[in-house]
Design goal:
Layout lengths: L1 E6 L2 E4 L4 E9 L6 E7 L6 E7 L5 E3 L7 E6 L4 E6 L8 E8 L13 E2 L3 E6 L1
Parallel strand pairs: 2-11
Antiparallel strand pairs: 1-3, 3-8, 4-5, 4-9, 5-6, 7-8, 9-10, 9-11
């Protein structure tokens, strides 16, 4: 099994920045890719960004492209999501997720490992 623990959420004004971290432990050698998803109240969970564990492949949702950056530090088994130019519509619970197989990076059903989520609130 793989355990994922997110941190770094909080309250920020529009235009501000936050960096989320996701620390993985356990059978991390089984991880093929990591992703970030978010869920706002009353809305479905949506894809934000993902990268292969090797870092070769990186994907972003159109809504966050050019504002968010996903990265990883394999030595620390940690994935980051740097969020800049935050907007009120970015407000959501952000979840870190891991998967063991290839496939569509934005398909949350393919991710078998999930963190507990961290709240990001962007005020206008």
């Amino acid at each position: 099994q793989v355990q994922l623990v997110e941190s770094g959420g909080g309250l920020v004004q529009a235009g501000g920045s936050l960096r989320l971290s996701c620390a993985a432990s356990g059978r991390t050698f089984s991880i093929y890719a990591m992703g970030w998803f978010r869920q706002a109240p009353g809305k479905e969970r949506e894809f934000v960004a993902a990268l292969s564990w090797s870092g070769v492949s990186i994907y972003y949702a159109d809504s966050v492209k050019d504002r968010f950056t996903i990265s990883r530090d394999n030595a620390k088994n940690t994935v980051y999501l740097q969020m800049n130019s935050l907007k009120p519509e970015d407000t959501a619970v952000y979840y870190c997720a891991g998967r063991r197989q290839s496939g569509d990076y934005n398909d949350y059903s393919l991710y078998g490992y999930w963190g507990q989520g961290t709240q990001v609130t962007v005020s206008s």
